[in-house]
Design brief:
Layout (H helix, E strand, L loop, with lengths): L6 E4 L6 E4 L8 H18 L3 H8 L4 H15 L5 H10 L3
Length: 94
């Protein structure tokens, strides 16, 4: 089994050089906790309310939804499947 090597990184917040075994490390130990709190606060403030989104599309039957997908694909020259279309619609990308 290979032993992991520590890599050198520069913290995105404070610019300090730190070492980590993880290839995805972005923050030093001092900044990691503060950034985690900030990200959670932003997520809680900006998260969508699924019940509002569901009410917007709840009255459509499967046939109507499939017809919407067909119209959208024809208009925009795409080939989205049902899952791709629903995912993009629910995320607000359509």
């Amino acid at each position: 089994m290979k032993k992991k090597l520590q890599r050198e990184f520069v913290c995105k917040l404070c610019g300090m050089v730190f070492y980590s075994y993880s290839a995805n490390a972005k923050y030093c130990m001092d900044c990691r906790y503060e950034n985690k709190k900030k990200e959670k606060r932003n997520y809680m403030n900006n998260k969508r309310h699924p019940e509002l989104l569901m009410n917007k599309y709840r009255n459509k039957s499967l046939d109507e939804t499939l017809l919407d997908i067909k119209k959208y694909n024809k208009k925009h020259g795409t080939k989205y499947s049902y899952g791709e279309y629903i995912g993009r619609r629910d995320c607000g990308w359509l």
